[in-house]
Amino acid sequence: MSNTARAFSLFLLSTIPITGLGGCGLFVPEKNPFVDDNVPAGKPSPNGLYENAVVGHIRCQIRNGVIKALVFPEVSWLRSWGATVTLKITVQEQDALSPGISYVDPLENSIKFFRVGGNITSAQSFTLGAGGSGGVSATRLETIAFTYSFAELIHEGSSPVCNQTQGFQIDSDLKIDQFIYDKAVIAATGEATSNDVRLPPYTTFQDDITFVASLGGNITPTWKFARVSANSTVPLLSGSRMSTNEVIITLAKVVKPPTKGSPAQLSSDAQAVHNTALTGSAVGGANNSQATPH
Question: Mean per-residue pLDDT for 50-76?
């Protein structure tokens, strides 16, 4: 086998661990590269079941938080409130190729003569380095938005299961009930209002939770011949995958109850606050994507 053929074979073998990351920006990223989501029509998909469990987990924690907060009679106004929830699932994959080559032309040695102590011989050479780089990136963003009316959630009763999860990140205890209860404590003490403590002191309040997980790897096969060496410094091929799960929860008064054709609708102030959070999340996500090295 020639040196060129051998180098090409080694290159192909070296790319196997990196391409296993799931596509590395060349294709639409899979939400879970280890699960086949192509199922026959009518059969639940693994990712669909997972997302359904996440939504149910969020619903359960909101319900528990509202029911727990209602132990304070001063916050009975919560019964007429609701929550708009936006769940954003983002997967970004990137790969980069950075080949480099170095040419070395040895020159005749330089000899420095001394009268005493012996002469010194120094090696000389001419070196020319050249390299290039290229990268690709693909981002998949899915957004799920839903609105709950607390009047309906209260009738379901609380559940201890949703706060005893053993998972991590978005599957863990999101402490949504703690967030709602803390705001109820502030309202019940009257510190948030100069009016009757039984009146709602808030127009809206919001909880924003983000989890980011990343996975990356690189491979650097190096070839060295008499005059030429390749990829002796930077990785030849690198790949990365970043998954982001974000939950934005906005609580406010329900101004339009749910119907058969549409969910409940919160106040205009709440919609403005929620949309502002979504805009900020989108801008931050775009900036992070541009700042991520390829």
Answer: 93
Residue 46 token pair: 């693994």
Burial class (CB in 10 A: 0-12, 13-18, 19+), 35: exposed
Q: Which two tokens stand for residue 95?
A: 């790969």
- For residue 129, is it within any domain? no
Domain extent for 52: 3-99+135-222+237-291
Indicate the range of 22-31, 90-99, 131-140, 254-263 predicted with least confidence. 22-31
Give the chain's domain count: 1
- Taking CB atoms within 8 Å and a gap of at least 24, the contacts of 283-290 are 285/90, 285/141, 285/244, 289/92, 289/137, 289/139
Whether 38 maps to a domain, the answer reads yes
Cα–Cα distances (Å) from 4 to 10, 11, 59, 183, 221, in that order, read 10, 11, 60, 68, 14
pLDDT of residue 201: 85
Strand arrangement, sheet containing 223-224: 120-131, 100-112, 228-230, 223-224
Query: Which pLDDT score is estimated for 22?
Result: 42
Flag whether pLDDT at 3 surpasses 60. Answer: no
Q: Is residue 156 a part of any domain in this protein?
A: yes
Evaluate whether residue 43 is within a structural domain.
yes
CB-based burial label for 71 (10 Å; 0-12, 13-18, 19+) = exposed
- pLDDT band of residue 289 (cuts 50, 70, 90) is low
Count CA atoms within 13 Å of residue 255 on its CB side.
10
Top pLDDT among 24 and 150 is at: 150
